[in-house]
Write a structure and sequence with these properties.
Layout (H helix, E strand, L loop, with lengths): L1 H26 L7 H36 L4 H23 L10
Helix pairs in contact: 1-2, 2-3
């Protein structure tokens, strides 16, 4: 029962991270916006999302690690969860340190 609950929490937090990243990606297009409004909008988004999004991403990594540890005796699940752990770490590092900001430099 513990393993299923931890797997659910891992899926929940990783899905929240993915959904938030997708929403931010959709909302961050500067096309059709004045430069001043876009700069203010992005500054507000950074203030609002910095702590919650990083917290959700770190919780996702934590629960994926815990579920990987709990699945250490089931080899097929264990190897898939190791791959999921690597992906979750990469996503969290990208979320924390930023990425993709070069796309709008010419704007």
């Amino acid at each position: 029962m513990l393993r299923k609950a931890v797997l659910f929490l891992a899926l929940f937090f990783v899905a929240l991270t993915s959904g938030a990243a997708f929403a931010v990606w959709l909302d961050s297009s500067p096309f059709g916006l004045s430069p001043n409004f876009y700069a203010e909008k992005m500054q507000h988004a950074i203030r609002v999302f910095t702590i919650p999004l990083n917290t959700v991403a770190i919780l996702g990594v934590l629960f994926v690690f815990i579920s990987t540890f709990l699945a250490r005796h089931d080899r097929s699940s264990f190897y898939l969860l190791i791959a999921a752990s690597a992906c979750a770490i990469a996503a969290t590092l990208i979320t924390i340190f930023g990425g993709g900001t070069k796309a709008y430099e010419s704007f």
